[in-house]
Amino acid sequence: MGVKKTRRFCTIPTCFLYIRATVQFKLVSNMRTKQVKKLLAVFIVLGLCCAAKATVVSLKDEGSTITATPGQALVLELVADDSLFMFDAIISVAGDATITDAMDSASAVDYGWFVVFDNFITPIYRENSVEIGAESIPEPGHPGGDIGFVEITYGSGAVIVSVACGNSIPLGFWGQLPPCSTGVVTIVPEPASILLLGLGVVILKRRH
């Protein structure tokens, strides 16, 4: 004998509850999808804004020409045009000049850095350049403006001072190293120094 199959019919209340639950689930799913899309759109916009407003590290007097006398010590400062959590920059000189000092852990406090690890703010001196940097705590970070300095003793002739990004400062989990400007500072002898040098040459020629 075959087994008699019976069809199951839902009662009206049961069917109603099932339909309502299905509709609610679809509505919630659609709402969640829309919310996710909105959140993604917000993140994209914020990302673009952050990229457009990226902090740039530069020489404070970039684009300018400074006059100096032989043996004169000049202090050039680094600036950031917006807030930042860290920076790492290599300041180089091309010409007759010597880098004699740069920001360290002692002077970093004067520039608004909260010193946690001294090794992050120890200058790295190389031939004709020095690498300086700092890393702040996650909040509130550094407000921007003056962020460091380098001291250069001028010799003679035209000297070009430039800045480039370094890579010795470890990346923190709260930020990335900001880009550096390509602007330069030019140091030239004062007119009086040029005049004295010319007179010296003339005197030497007459003696010979």
Question: What features would you describe in this structure?
Answer:
A hairpin with a 2-residue loop joins strand 5 and strand 6. The protein has helices at 12-52, 105-108, 191-207, and strands at residues 57-59, 65-68, 73-80, 86-102, 124-126, 129-135, 145-165, 184-189. Strands 1, 2, 3, 4, 5, 6, 7 and 8 form an eight-stranded mixed β-sheet that branches. The chain is built from three helices and eight strands. The model is unreliable at 3-11 and 36-52 (pLDDT under 50). With 208 residues, the chain is α+β, with helices and mostly antiparallel strands. It has two domains: 12-44; 57-192, Immunoglobulin-like. It is elongated.
- Helical content stands at 25-40%
SSE pattern, N- to C-terminal: HEEEEHEEEEH
The tally of helices reads 3
Principal-axes shape call:
elongated
Provide a brief overview of the structure.
Helices cover 30% and strands 33% of the residues.
Record the SSE blueprint.
Blueprint lengths: L11 H41 L4 E3 L5 E4 L4 E8 L5 E17 L2 H4 L15 E3 L2 E7 L9 E21 L18 E6 L1 H17 L1
Parallel strand pairs: 2-8
Antiparallel strand pairs: 1-3, 3-7, 4-6, 4-7, 5-6, 7-8
Features:
208 residues, alpha+beta, Immunoglobulin-like, 2 domains, eight-stranded mixed β-sheet, 3 helices, disordered N terminus
